[in-house]
Amino acid sequence: MSDYDVIVIGSGAGGGTLAHRLASTGKRVLLLERGDWLAREPENWSASAVFVENRYVSADTWYDGRGKPFQPQVHYFVGGATKLYGAALYRLRAEDFGELAHHDGISPAWPIGYDEMEPYYTEAEQMYHVHGARGEDPTEPPASAPYPFPALVHEPRIQQLSDDLAAAGFQPFHAPCGVMRDDANPPFSVCVRCSTCDGFPCLVHAKSDAEVLGVRPALEYPNVTLVTGARAVRLETDAAGKTVTGVVAEHDGGTETFRGDIVVVSCGAANSAALLLASATDRHPDGLANGSGQLGRNYMFHNSQAVLALSRDENATVFQKTLGLNDFYFRGPDVDYPLGNIQMVGKSTAPMYRGEKPLETKLAPTWSLDQVARHAVDFWLSTEDLPRPDNRVTLRPDGSIALSYTATNDVPAQKLYEQLRSVLGHLDLHHHLIPRHAYLKNAIPVAGCAHQAGTCRFGTNPADSVLDVDCRAHEVDNLYVVDTSFFPSIGAVNPALTAMANALRVGDRIAERLGATVRKAAIA
Ligand SMILES: Cc1cc2nc3c(=O)[nH]c(=O)nc-3n(C[C@H](O)[C@H](O)[C@H](O)COP(=O)(O)OP(=O)(O)OC[C@H]3O[C@@H](n4cnc5c(N)ncnc54)[C@H](O)[C@@H]3O)c2cc1C
Ligand code: SF4
To answer: How far apart are CA 415 and CA 195, in angstroms?
Structure first.
């Protein structure tokens, strides 16, 4: 008998949510996490520590398609990237589950429809305390329940932006947001609506991240064990190559092998592909479960742009991420292909601009960076990038990650930027609109891999997908993947809620397989 019923590798949006789902089954769950608990310290909320010193970014070196080294924006902690995320928790649109024609080609259909995911989106919104208002976003998919918490109130400058947009004929909406905030009763609210949320850890544990709402409650069950500082380096398989028999991990300065009946990989899209590629055997010469040749391929991370508009009046907003605009999600005013999603990002501050040459050169000497920060209204634009086989993760001879990526849908991304420019031209926010590198701090775009997805896509056909519809490897009976790797396409909204919802769905399949029952009410 194995030591564990299920081993989950990685404790982020996928793995942390899955561990939570399986906790109430009574099955023995081991969560292996390469990182440690993220320290609660004053630096959590220091823009210099977070954005200039990269205090919470891993020291990894990856290599781009030309072999140039870069530091990827990945975060190895209990809770994974959700410790730093902006907690904009969007559902994919129902249409994103079907085939969609884009400027640069087809965004492929998912093997399951939106209907199948919908109940899990609802549960994930409840688990992750999502605030929002149904009926405002013209592209929102049908939902079986209201948001569990009311929309976060816009601060005055953002309310004005919303009113101005509506007056100009657009349909701004309250963005879905995962923070434990009670706007109706601020003295009793855990979340204090600070300016250091998006891209920062939450010092007071009020952000709906996978540590606080996934791992910690899961650990209250005696059958769940977490081992931190355990980096899985290889999966061992039986002679037939059909079953994972051991997870080999670097731990405590040595190497240890953990054994479980079911093994779930959830290391983030690049690292999950790397782990499976590193687990090649005679039976799986191109990487574990890679008979299709698709493992590591179809890497996506959105064609994103951070832009900053300067408001004539100072923008005193503290918590800015409350507004979204999907008017151009499926088409532009003059084109019949999708452009993408527009949302706010965390309010920028002067230290974040350090090293951003476009800002200094475009505005100097009339504006100091402090002045820019006081007037900045910050937007995040996401255009869907398409899955391309050549956009892929491979391993270099020394085992390090190589990430080849060529952008797709540059034309719609540019059009989305122009639309924002034109929209803001109608408002009082127009005389400067400046591209920023907020999340793309290094010069190499691939380093900004916050929204990475797609390296182990799921599908019905083993010839062109790595996982089946339950996110189980076609070729290895007890191997699952539940991070964003399974995405066959990424849509143009933020990916975390979809990873969380899918982890709940896969958790139910694994519980069924183990003959166990998930006690949902107990978890809630
Ligand atoms: C700054 C920032 C802002 C973001 N904002 C948003 C947002 O507003 N909305 C949104 O939806 N998404 C956002 N995202 C993206 C979101 O955080 C990710 O999509 C999501 O966390 C992905 O979940 P995952 O399970 O695939 O990977 P992760 O959450 O990254 O989890 C992977 C885990 O695996 C661990 N791990 C890796 N390799 C190994 C190994 N070999 N052995 C053991 N453990 C391993 C890692 O340490 C990590 O804990 C943001 C991301 C960042 C970085
Ligand atoms: S805004 Fe709320 S959730 Fe975000 S970091 Fe501040 S206190 Fe935490």
So the answer is: 30
Reported as type and span, the H/E element at residue 126 is: helix 114-127
Which residue's C-alpha comes closest to atom 6 of ligand 2?
A: 194
Inter-helix orientation angle 13-23/114-127, to 10°: 80
**CA dist., res. 282 & res. 241, Å (int):** 8
b/e sequence 406-441, b meaning 16+ C-beta within 10 Å: ebbbebbbebbbebbeebbeebebbebbbebbbbbb
Please list every protein residue whose CB sits less than 6 Å from any atom of ligand 1. Answer: 9-15, 32-35, 73, 75-77, 80-82, 84-89, 199, 231-232, 266-268, 271, 275, 439, 450-451, 483-484, 494-497, 499
Q: What ligand is nearest to the CA atom of residue 88?
A: 1
Q: What pLDDT is attached to residue 439?
A: 40
- Report residue 262 as tokens: 């079911």
Quote the ligand 1 centre to 75 CA distance (angstroms): 7
Closest by alpha carbon to 18, among 372, 190, 313, 262?
A: 262
Instruction: Find out whether 114 and 92 touch, Cβ atoms under 8 Å.
Output: yes
**What's the angle, vertex CA 287, arms to CA 282 and CA 288, rounded to 5?**
85
Confidence (pTM): 0.96
Lay out the sheet containing 392-395: strands in order across: 69-70, 62-64, 401-404, 392-395
3-state secondary structure of 271: helix
Cβ-based neighbours of 66, under 8 Å, separated by 6 or more: none
Distance 85 CA to ligand 2 centre (A): 11
pLDDT digits (tens, 9 = 90+) for 393-433: 999 999 999 999 999 999 999 999 999 988 887 786 655 56
Tell me, using a 6 A CB cutoff, whether residue 202 lines ligand 2: yes
| Position 59 pLDDT exceeds 90 | yes
CA–CA gap between residue 129 and residue 263 (Å, rounded): 28
Question: Each residue of 476-498: pLDDT tens digit?
Answer: 999 999 999 999 999 999 999 99
Structure tokens belonging to residue 191: 């979340």
Strands 29-32 and 224-227: parallel
Question: How much of the chain exceeds pLDDT 70, in percent?
Answer: 93
179 lines ligand 2 (CB under 6 A): yes
The CA 206 to ligand 2 mean position distance, Å, reads 6
The Cα–Cα gap between 451 and 71 comes to 15
Q: How far is the CA of 204 from the centre of ligand 2 (A)?
A: 7
Please enumerate in sequence order all residues whose Cβ is within 8 A of that of 333, keeping only pairs 6 or more positions apart, or say none: 419
Separation CA 456–CA 466 (nearest Å): 5
Which two tokens mark 194? Answer: 């600070």
